[in-house]
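pinned: reference chain
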Amino acid sequence: MNARREARAHAEPQVAHSESRLRTQLGGPKRGTLDSGYERIRQILLGYLSPILVDSVLDRALLARNLSPTLLSAAALGEVTADIMVGLRLFVPEERLSQLMLELAETLDRGEP
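pinned: its structure tokens
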């Protein structure tokens, strides 16, 4: 019985989380590094939302614009951030929302990709 279970486990593809799969495929920055505008935006959002929600929101915004974290110019990052701001109103308490918007705007004003 164990041999059958092991054979099935080897036959089934191993599925990574979407975030790790995306980062591996794209060669994006590792978690905890702030060497890209995308990662800075992600770190800010993590101060307000759960990691799974942050990654979902960012992944959907990138997908909608057919972009990837590694190929974001400063202008594209601004567009993606503007796209997610509308949805953030649903998840961030009103009393914290203005601070989040200021942090995102300050990061974008730096203009670094």
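why pinned: Helices lie at 2-11, 18-26, 37-46, 51-64, 74-91, 94-109. The longest helix spans residues 74-91.
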